[in-house]
Amino acid sequence: MTTKVETEVILKLNEMTVTYGPVHALSQVDIDIKRGEIVALLGPNGAGKSTLMYALAGVLPVTRGEIIFNDQIINSLSVDQRVKLGITLVPEGRLLFGPLTTQDNLELGACHWYRKEGKPTVRRYYNGILGLFPMLKKKTNQRVESLSGGEQQIVALGRGLMARPKLLLLDEPGLGLAPVLVRQLMNTLANLRRERGMSILLAEQNARAALRIADRGYVMGAGRIIMEGLSQELRSRDKIRIAYLGR
Predict the structure, then answer these.
(1) Looking at residues 10-14, what average pLDDT do you find?
(2) Which of 20, 70, 153, 199 has a CA-to-CA distance to 6 between 20 and 30 Å?
(3) Dihedral, CA atoms, 152, 156, 157, 162, nearest 10 degrees?
(4) In terms of domains, do 205 and 175 share one?
């Protein structure tokens, strides 16, 4: 039996439009995400995936429409206010602080709550991240810029988790990673949803990998949603297979 919590919508976009001058980067986008759900956001470069992610995080202003998070319209809230509500973005390119250590980068994820709850709580969460990603235990004092691409992506994900998100936004986390690392990353995301009930919006060009773990998906093109459905349905559609899955 499906419970109320499992079906409750945590995020809803109503006709969200983002413009750059006369250009509509996003046009009347409607999306919803339920609690404990992984939703894939698919599409080629330039489709609008990153723009949507940055608008959700508060980096880009919304021209028209509504972003509703936990029944609250958040269009006017700043990035910091959205993080405090529970929306965390792990951006494309990671945007880590290269000269700082792995530990420093991870602990920066707690910047919005550490003063209130103190260093012991930060350290407990930090140790929890190392438990999730044992590969980082021997890298804690190493400068992030010296880590491999896969290790840096794990640090970026760990930093996002340190913010204690209710909704995790992941923008192209598999970009530039070897296939084996992409599989490991996707398995980690599936485990986070299963063990923590985390809601995840996953923007990813690797549609095959994303749809393997996602419950549902949206396909974007030219700033619009052009297709949506359950992951199994999207995998079976000829247009998706030809455009994104290679057959």
Answers:
(1) 97
(2) 153
(3) 130
(4) yes
Spatial separation of the C-alpha atoms in residues 134 and 144, rounded to whole Å: 16
27, containing H or E segment: strand 23-34
pLDDT at 132 > cutoff 90: no
Among residues 163, 178, 195, the one where a domain terminates is 163
pTM: 0.89
Domain that holds residue 234: 4-86+165-245
Apex CA 171: angle with CA 77 and CA 96, to 5°? 85
Pairing, β 38-42 against β 23-34: unpaired
- Please tell me what DSSP assigns to residue 143: B
Q: Provide the H-helix boundaries in the chain.
A: 4-7, 49-57, 79-85, 102-108, 114-117, 119-132, 149-162, 179-196, 207-213, 231-236, 238-240
Which pLDDT score is estimated for 223?
95
